[in-house]
Amino acid sequence: MNLASRLTVARRGEPELATKPAAGIPDDAVALPPTSGSVPAEPGPADARPDASPIVGEDPGVVPSPDSGLAAFLDAPAAPPSSARRGTVDALAGLKARAAEALFERLGSRITDPSLTEEQLRKLARDELSQVIDAEQVPLSPEERRRLIRDIGDEVLGLGPLQRMLDDPEISEIMVNRRDQIYVERNGKLEATDATFSSEEQLRRIIERIVSKVGRRIDESSPLVDARLEDGSRVNAIIPPLAVNGPSITIRKFSRDPLTVRNLIEFGTLTPDMAHLLEACVKARLNIIVSGGTGTGKTTLLNVLSGFIPMDERIVTIEDAVELQLQQEHVVRLESRPANIEGKGAVTIRDLVKNSLRMRPDRIVVGEVRGGESLDMLQAMNTGHDGSISTVHANTPRDAIARLETLVLMAGMDLPLRAIREQVASAVNLIVHLTRLRDGTRRVTHLTEVQGMEGDMVTLQDAFVFDYSAGMDSQGRFLGKPVPTGVRPRFLDHFHEVGVKLPPGIFGTPGGAGAGAVAQTGTGKGRW
To answer: What's the whole-model pTM score?
Structure first.
């Protein structure tokens, strides 16, 4: 099939068909449908079967005329894209490859010229691409021309087929399983896409482009990496030999505008009463652990909680890959570093936690504790660095306590279990637990106070829990919301000592929060 035919197929949205030309007809001839009557068709695989049945109303081996029912069916609009059509060959693939190669040659070192802004570089690329396409002398519609320039620009300057997904505000996560299988998360639900990479080499170039911008590397000796995009989106990439089906990449997008507590209330993640309580806990300098599973919104909530920190305090953030988007000015951001190609020079989260204690921090915010740094963090909380916030992976608040105990043991200290539990019970004041429900929504399902030790057990008391008994609506969405348990936390005495007050009735019956002013924490209940 020649380029003109392939363009026709691309416009109609139909898959390309491999046809065998009749004798005497050139390979690049364009087959046109008959204008009237019918002509004998070439024998096909169906004719070779003895049990092949002719189509009702048609003679065997005859192509139906355009006015027949079958012809009308064939000329009907194409069905929506499905998994069976993901492998459809792009009719412009060859032209894209040639144009991209020519653009690389024309731009040369200007692609990495720091004096050019992103907009200037893209304008330069568009101008050069227009000349390249004109030189190809391929008939293209205006829409095809715009699509071709956009796709090649994304390939050369952006992230190829992933660029449009990154620009889509409804997509929160992008998952590339292999070059021809890409999934996205939209509104909390996973769905397949028709986008593909032209080759594993193209996918590999995109991965190397991402990691090189943050000073990381990925190769056969170091085949997996954590990185970030310029907007803070989290990136994980893994390549062969660890990735059996070819390079794989996962991107968790971050909102260009950081979410606020008002947004979380509108989403149903938490209630206004919970927001007032969390704000008071941050201002009263309680130590808070945000727990939850993967993709539950721990980092987002950590960003929101950090927004309650007063502007006149010095904050030190410690992360594997910088993701937090703090709005305060007095912030020092630290990032761990992997070992170099010689296996030297690694700087771990634990090293940074130890160093941060000598930086005169008012608050220490650790993006996630997942190893021996948990012991240093607990010691910091117990030695005057109160008001610290961190996250941990866990399924319940009780599991979060058990996981902290396990992480402390990973520090290599031969400590008795009771001593570890006493450290945890003394250091942590509040656990905020997030859960991703079956309907795709993310909810704060527990606000749990760590009250202390009873015997050998750490005692916990829920202040708010999610009400699952409300059931689900006709669309499968949970109708429940977090409700107070009616138990007043013990840390309210500390609130009184430091002058932080809450609206009356917050811990009463649902809906009975009452009114009142919030001393030193802003305005009253109507604030959110």
So the answer is: 0.69
